[in-house]
Amino acid sequence: AQLAPASNMKLLTTGAALHAFGPEFEFTTRLLQDGDRIIIKGDGDPALGDPDLLKVTTVEGREGVDVETLLGVWIKPIVDSGLTRVTEVIVDDRIFDREFVHPAWPVDQLTARYCAEVAGLNFHMNVLHFYPKPRQGQSPVIGGSVPDAPWIRISNMATSRNGGRDESNIWIARTGDTNDLTFRGNVRFAYKAPVAITLHNEPEFFA
Fold first, then answer.
1. pTM assigned to the model
2. Distance (Å, rounded) from C-alpha 101 to C-alpha 110?
3. 112 versus 11: which is more confidently predicted?
4. What are phi and psi of 100, to 5 degrees?
């Protein structure tokens, strides 16, 4: 009988990766210092900063870290080196091409986390997480994102209605090949699970 190639496709890609790279292969994303320049050399690692892996990551004897702690581990050697001025941050993502989205992917689903872009430098699954909260009579509180990105332009068109038939159904739209975000829908209760939105051009965002 024919089967739809959903999760079964993962068996083929995993088998191909094991055949090509071997079971001992490891991705290596490197942070380099060249004078007063910082260079991040990507290796195509799909798991760097993965939220689920962060929960089981151990840093200084403590299991479970957040994004800022992980970045702090990276930054500390640069700070300890005595560098006080950075003139340039370079992300080298040349291990992959820059076709972040396959042309066959469904255009109407590119903001869903399972359609996140793929790059030579990936971080946090190439998505932002938000945890909106209701604000009576006003637009909901969007709050900060994870990872923190205060420069992202946000338009808040959502509501905070709490009538008998109102529910929490907020969603996020992203404008074309940008990271400009628009929040729509309603927030009746504070979100404990994240509301996710994919990012465009993760190497540039990470820089």
1. 0.89
2. 8
3. 112
4. -65, -30
CA atoms within 13 A on the CB side of 183: 26
Among residues 126, 186, 127, which one has the least CA distance to residue 156? Answer: 186
3-state SS of 127-163 is EEEECCECCCCCCCECCCCECCCCCCCEEECCECCCC
Report pLDDT digits (tens) over 141-167: 999 999 999 999 999 999 999 999 999
Give ∠ CA 50-52-56 in degrees, rounded to 5.
Answer: 105
